[in-house]
Each structure stands twice: as C-alpha cells, then as structure tokens.
Amino acid sequence: MSRIQMLMSKAGTVAHLLAVELSTASAGDRMATVQELSERFQVGKGTVQAALALLEEAGAVEIRPRGKLGTFVAAIDHGLIWEFAGGRSISVAMPLPYSRRYEGLATGMHTAFQQAGVPLTLMFVRGSTDRMRALREERADFAVMSRFAALSDPELEVVRDFGPHSYVGAHGLVVAEGRRADDPGLRVAVDPASVDQAELTAAVFPGLPPKQRIEVSYNQLNRYFADGLVDATVWNLDEIDAHISSPVTVHPVEGLEDDATTSAVIVARRDADAVPTAVKVALEGDLVRTAADDVVAGRLIPTY
C-alpha cells in the first residue's frame, strides 16, 4: 500500500489526529497510552498501533516504551508532524516592509519557517493596532510589533522577543526647518494606527491641544511636511531619510525611549491554542534576528 493510500485509510486518519496532538509535543514528552488513544479516537487499538507505525516509518516521530513509566517521544521531526497534521500555512501579520529593518524581519521569518518546514503566509498590515485587530478577529495566527505595543494589550502573549533595535533603531523628534522644538504652537503629526508613535508623541507633547494634533499616516508624512501642514512629529528614524524630503531637524527623545519601543516581538492571543512546537522551533535560536541584521547591513538580499 502506498503512503497516499495509507493516509486515506482509517489508520491514516488516526495518524492525522495523532499528528495534531503531537504538534505541541517535544522529545521527552510522555504520550497517552494506546488504550487511551483508542478510547479518545473511538477506534481499535490495532488501528492506533498502525497509525503510530505509519508516523514512525515516515520518520515523523520515534516512540519508546519505558515500562511502567509509559510511552515517550524519543525524537520528533516537527516539519513532518506538521505535514501529517494538515500542513496548513501559519499566518503572521507583519509591518509594511517600507524600511530595511522591517524587510529584515520579513526575511528572517521567511527563512526560519522555511528551514523548519512550516508553510508561512506573511500578511503586511499597517499599524500595530490593525495587526492586533487581525489577531482578535482570527485573521492571523501571530503578529509582529514592538514589545511596547504588545504590552499595551493584556489579551496578547509574547511568543518570542527578538531583542533591542530589532524593530526600530530609534525614534526621534522631527521638527520642520525654521521651527523650534519647544514652540508651543507646533502642529504635530500623530499616527493613530501606531501605538508606539501615538504614545511617544503624547509623552513628548503632553496636553497637546486637539487642533494641533494632526492625524497622519506614514505615507502622508512627506506631503504634510512639504505642504506646511505639520511642523513636527515623533517618528521612527529608520524611515526619516526615505520618507521626508523636506528639510527637518531631528532631536533625540531623551528619557522616553527604552528597549520596549525598539524591540520586535511576535505575539499571539492568550486564548488561542497552544503554540505548535514546529513554530517554536522556527522561532528559537538566532536565525530570525541574524537574517534581519544581515538585511539591514546589506549582507543579505531581502527575500519574503
């Protein structure tokens, strides 16, 4: 019987169910007994044993009995287990790749998931608030944002933190040429879709009158400065040269920025199913961060 025929058999159906269970397992974990699995899946013990044999013969898992202690996972190929479990694509909501750092994160994700054998769909969504919404509406399994933004929503759980300066290099106070940073009449650009930008702006300009608060998305920023519609903003310095052609002065936002605002994290909903081990494997180690840093440094061509 071919592997395809086996997968279409009753044992193949149970192998799929077993793979779904094993998708959150790791080597060393104790497995349910054949009797327990037989009762859970409402099939005979012989079918369960045939399903386990199918997974073992494919190299997806290695099972070892330890007498009275039970049966344990001795080794597991998370990519193959993911394939047996259905192999659906994991969706990750990402920032729009308009900076080298964001292109680097997308490249790192693509590289890490490809190496782990897990299909990946990157959704490029502008603004951390909209990426959070994509998670809440279950349009994405995970989302990438700053740790600062992630901590603003108690419904989110950080799955992996990629460390300082993985999300942005720094933020700065950007002021139009000829205007002073301490001018109380500055018209300030605020992007309500960005938790980081909106909160940092509120910290730099406490009590800003509504008429001086100008809502602007990143792609409108250059035109607003050029047309004299705004005088200042707090913005990601990675993007200033590429997105503002008007003459401006950049000031540091001293005392307001910390690792939380510059660190990229990947998050999931707290009430979501357990993170599959294949995803954890893809995200562990330094592969994502290394690839991202290589893109920023020009050592790696962005691929995503």
From TrEMBL:
GO terms for molecular function: DNA binding; DNA-binding transcription factor activity. InterPro entries: HTH_41 (IPR041444), Tscrpt_reg_HTH_GntR (IPR000524), WH-like_DNA-bd_sf (IPR036388), WH_DNA-bd_sf (IPR036390), YhfZ_C (IPR032791). Residues 14-73 form the HTH gntR-type domain. Signal peptide: none annotated. The keyword Transcription regulation applies. Pfam families: HTH_41, YhfZ_C. Keywords: DNA-binding, Transcription, Transcription regulation. NCBIfam families: YhfZ_full. This is Helix-turn-helix domain-containing protein. The lineage of its organism: Bacteria, Bacillati, Actinomycetota, Actinomycetes, Jiangellales.
